[in-house]
Input
Amino acid sequence: MTRLLLAIETSCDETAAAVVDDAYTVRSSVVASQIDLHAAFGGVVPELASRAHVEVITQIVERALDEAGVVGTDLAAVAVTSGPGLVGALLVGIATAKALALGWGVPVVRVNHLEGHLASVYLADRDVPFPQIALLVSGGHCMLTRSTGPGRYELLGETVDDSIGEAYDKVARFLGLGYPGGPVLDRLAAAGEDVLGFPRPMLADGYSFSFSGLKTAVVNHVRADPGFSETEVAASFVAACMDVLCAKLRRALEEFGDPAVAIVGGVAASPILRARAQALADEFGTRLLIPPQSMATDNAAMIGVAAWHVLGASGPSGRAFGPEPDLRLRFG
Ligand code: KG4
Ligand code: ZN
Output
């Protein structure tokens, strides 16, 4: 018999709930974005995020259950993101998940948000080959891992300063383009040419990344040239980011020759990155694993898939846990 779980995600500025079955079929996925709330500040304001989660979380859970046509007692478990993320935002999801699980008499599964992103590839394709190279590019992270199975990762390298999403968001804020920066910079970049020759940081440095110097180069260019072209700046910035990501991916594919390469995290919503990654995968004859565009940014369906992996590997989590704002992937 098919088993179902409810997954809840509130680590940053999306309040999300989903019902996912044990074959990873998404029965419902509801995401309430707080983008409008934070846009005026050019980034997420933690206190506002927590308050907004509290206001909508029960409605979002109700909608996810309704759309899936289930009630709480049909469920095998309630899964929730325990970290990394904003502590107050995580608290809302965790407290809600524990209370619902207690009421329904079902176990809780605690999920690492990063494992959620890595599991998001199953939302596009259930046949996921291993070993795989995985590039996780989000607002909080930029890391390259090699995975031999769900929950088994080796870290190849990560950013030494800003994540790539953070760089997009900071550049967009500086240009007065609002928050989040990814989609708008991407759109502008598609209409412009890479003519400014911004630096490609740490290209020669193994699998490490750095985006802070690139962001500063953009800021310096804009300050020095008040008549700057937004499309040229966006196209040149995005091209530099893409060249760095693709150079690291190429290095990993050359070193390991794995049958699959996964691109996950909010920046994987970028059509430019999706096209560049596909071209690279084709060149190496490897499979590109990438979530559907709408499931690249934060959602609860990916948390549901990761929860099935956790349940399979180690069972339910017990209820004695709290937010883990600095949670990392477990390597080894
Ligand atoms: O995974 P995510 O939703 O949240 C975190 O876990 O951080 O990623 C959010 C990041 C933001 O920095 C946003 O600017 C970026 O993903 N992003 C994009 C696009 N859509 C969202 N970056 C590039 N192109 C996009 N279309
Ligand atoms: Zn995320």
Observations:
- The two ends are 34 Å apart (CA to CA).
- Strands lie at 4-9, 14-21, 26-33, 77-83, 108-112, 132-137, 142-149, 152-158, 260-264, 287-289.
- Residues 12, 138-140, 165, 168-169, 180-183, 186, 265-267, 269-270, 297-298 surround KG4 (ligand 1) (CB under 6 Å).
- The chain has two domains: 4-119+295-314, 130-290.
